[in-house]
Amino acid sequence: MFQSDPYDVIILGAGPGGLQAAIHAARKKAKTLMLGRMDNSSLYWAHVENYCCQFKISGEDILNTGREQAISFGAEFRDEDVLSINPDGKLFKLDLESGESVLAKTVILATGSSRNKLKVPGEKELLGKGVSYCVDCDAGFYRDEVVAVAGCRSAAAGGAVSLTNFASEVHLYCEELDIADGLSEQLKTSGVNVHEGVTIESIEGTDAVEAVKLSDGTTQSVSGVFIELGAKGVLELTASLGVQLDESMKYIETDKKQRTNVEGIYAAGDICGPPLQMAKAVGEGCVAGIEAAGFAKKLEL
């Protein structure tokens, strides 16, 4: 399904930076869509006591209030993740886990910075030697190999489907899949071996990944392990856009207007680097929302 009428602003990430961007973009009468799940935000599980004008308050309460504010100004919300972003003329085409695609005049990246770890033996030791956190970056190294993917949400399921274009076998391990119906159908027809209720307990190998030991007591021989816990990260989402990252390849570089080096792409919050604080994320979200809305209004298609 394809929605041809473009949004002025699409925001990726439902944390404080993204919410503040949605509030300001919507108040500027920009057609605004926010994509993401609030419980993917690290703030959702936190308690805050260092934010101006607030004593101790739960992150969940902050995010729920911000969502209500943005909706009151006209922003739309969808609790699903983005699988890919690609240029489409002067616009950007975003493919969603539901199977739908949407167009945007501008995109604000506010997905946070952390890469969730599996926290099992061998993960740290074999990073870069078969352990990867980026399917889009490293899939090509595993042509005709057997690989494992760990995760239950869209990044894991979408990554596993993508890997079938390279690997001879793809095994997806998770407690319980939590993905949209459209992506679920893709997964079923992709040839991915899905092992629900089975998780990776350790990654084996000396100089390279050789196998994974599983919670059901079995061992699967693999050459690569892709850890995809949550939504798509900065590396995957920016791979096709040419967005400039810093030297660590963790954070997006922006100017004082939160613009990236790609016209129409903005970024805010932890994805732009430390300090990883809500106050900084909110300030950058404010700037990004205002600037993106202004750019979208002036864009001639």
TrEMBL record:
SUPFAM superfamilies, sorted: FAD/NAD(P)-binding domain
Pfam families, A to Z = Pyr_redox_2
What InterPro entries is this protein classified in?
FAD/NAD-bd_sf, FAD/NAD-binding_dom, Ferredoxin-NADP_redctase_2
What EC number(s) has UniProt assigned to this enzyme? 1.8.1.9
Any keyword Flavoprotein? Answer: yes
Q: Which Gene3D superfamilies match?
A: FAD/NAD(P)-binding domain (3.50.50.60)
Q: Which PANTHER family match?
A: THIOREDOXIN REDUCTASE 1-RELATED-RELATED
Q: What is this protein called?
A: Thioredoxin reductase
